[in-house]
Amino acid sequence: MKRKILILSLCFFLFSPSFLSAEPDNEIAQGIRELRQKMSYLRTMVLSFYLQQEVTADSFLVTSLSNDSIIFKKNNKERYPIASVTKLMAAVVALENIDLDEEIVLKDKMFTPHTRLSPSLPMGLSVSAENLIKASLIQSTNYAAEALTYFLENGEFVDIMNEKAEEIGMEDTFFYDAHGLSIMNQSTTADTTKLISYIHENHPDILEITRDDDFWMPCPESEMCKFMNLNIFHSHPDFIGGKTGYLHKAKQTFLCLFEVNGEIIAISLLSSEDRKEDTMKIIEWMERRPFPLN
Length: 294
Hints:
With 294 residues, the protein is of the alpha+beta class. It has 2 domains: 54 residues, no CATH class; 218 residues, DD-peptidase/beta-lactamase superfamily (Beta-lactamase, 3-Layer(aba) Sandwich), CATH 3.40.710.10. The protein is 41% helix and 19% strand. The protein is built from 10 helices and 11 strands. A 5-stranded antiparallel beta sheet has the order 2-1-11-10-9, sandwiched between helices. A two-stranded antiparallel ribbon has the order 3-6. Helix 1 crosses helix 3 and helix 5 packs antiparallel against helix 6. The radius of gyration is 23 Å and the shape is elongated.
């Protein structure tokens, strides 16, 4: 423990403002500057190590989309249930295969009691595909995600989800349903990062929806009701977009993009005990990192 404290103390001394202000005017000074750079990299690696011990997620991957580099990772190729992160792929499939203005009438036979573990939509309501996408992403409404599948032939929607995963290189991913309630919806943080990257490049409107907190639809009790954004980061100034998820067996999941110090950072967390704290620790580390890892 004393050795760790000594190393960290030396690192912080070498990068103190007074020490870093010296200008090299000879070979010795130049050598000192080179040592500073090496120690800066070492300090970054040490801080990265400590951060990885503090993040509660069993699997995580932090990637810079700005330069396509991995910042740090843990078990990024191991499969875990992804819960409602599934709805991001459902939104992609809906946007690419359904007329957003097309409407469908909601009927009881479309849904199971299992699906009703989220705020429901009134039966008999005629709702557009666009509004179903919004309800599924903003308030994680399982009814909405399941209803989207009825715009296509029976079973076709989920088949297309799996085909799309294969198309964008998600080799270790399987979708069983469109809402993520089954633990059979599984992926890796390596694969889910490919998904958020694809969305960023091809469907930024999905990310915009996940930041929305002013979406209204008809409700049984009143003429209109608001769908609350369940993502605590939706109003964060640096939040670009993403989706949370939770199942008892999957724990907490989160797939998102943030802009940090001018970089677009993808964060994928699976099997997390506290995705909020994990995400904040990662962002704070990114803001303070003294030396890039790549």
